Amino acid sequence: MLDPLHCDFEFACWTIDPALTRAALSAGVRWIGPDLEIIGKHERQAGTGSLISAHSRETVPMMRELVGSEKLFARCNGPGPHLQVEIESLLSGGVQCLMVPMLRRLSQAQQVVDQVAGRAQLVLMVEHADILDSVDAVAALPGVHTLYVGTNDLALSMGYRTRFGPVKDGWIDRIAAVAKARGVGFSFLGFGRLSARLAVPVDLVIASYVRHGVRWGLFARSFAATPQSFGDELEQVRQRLAWWRSQSSDALDEAQDRFMTCCAQAERNGLPHGPQH
After folding, report:
1. Cα–Cα dist 128/275, whole Å
2. Does 1 fall in a domain?
3. For residue 98, is pLDDT > 70?
4. 46 lies in which domain range?
């Protein structure tokens, strides 16, 4: 039985591996499914070491069989002439949580919201400099569940050396404040494995999640759990979420200071975009 502190956090996992899917289901992951974003990604992220998914829409029926439509999750491609058909295909295929990347204009977000029309939980990604001035208006659109900051692409579009550049310059705080004011969810980065040796420690990311009231999160590549270890690794993350939630605001502020210091150091060092959170 999960502690009540754990139950209001929605974990989302990109996978089409049946064994890992079953492990994630057993561990209580809320959303599971394919990452289908591919259009333009090789060109945008060339040389960054980022992971580009090889999942395809043909995997959606298999994943629906494995997880049921009530847990079926997918990230589609960003705006373009293909998107309307792609979204309709995913929704008709049973996807109940849809993540949409690379929005650059309010009108694009409006079109997505209008098309989805409440048929799925809608997670809109903030990951290009062009959309930053419209974040408040995007968050105000009815039907938006969560704003998710894609720090890798956002950093690339803003000329930073690493995904931690927008964090250290306060963009995460600003977008989180907008989301809170508009009553929508907010998230960024991703859960790595707690034991992973990263320039920005996973525990400080979790503390920042708690400080910002994050309730929806993805697993990063650095989570790297196998089907055999997934449950134990996720339980460690849950325990740290619960622990940080029990801490004072002063303790969370101090952890945030350390988190920002690590992000600034990572940006100065010019760490690769890909293998972190």
Report:
1. 20
2. no
3. yes
4. 8-269
Kindly report the CATH number assigned to the domain that includes residue 211. 3.20.20.60
Of the candidates 206, 235, 210, 207, the residue with the CA atom closest to the CA atom of residue 220: 206
Q: What is the pLDDT of residues 168-186, one digit of tens each?
A: 999 999 999 999 999 999 9
- Position 3 in a domain: no
- The answer to whether residue 123 sits within a structural domain is yes
| Lowest-pLDDT choice from 184-193, 206-215, 232-241, 264-273 | 264-273
**Chain segment 30-73, per-residue pLDDT in tens:** 999 999 998 655 565 545 555 656 668 889 999 999 999 899 99
Rg (CA), the chain: 18
Has residue 274 been placed in a domain? no
- Calculate the alpha carbon distances from 262 to 100, 167, 188, 247 in Å: 29, 10, 16, 21
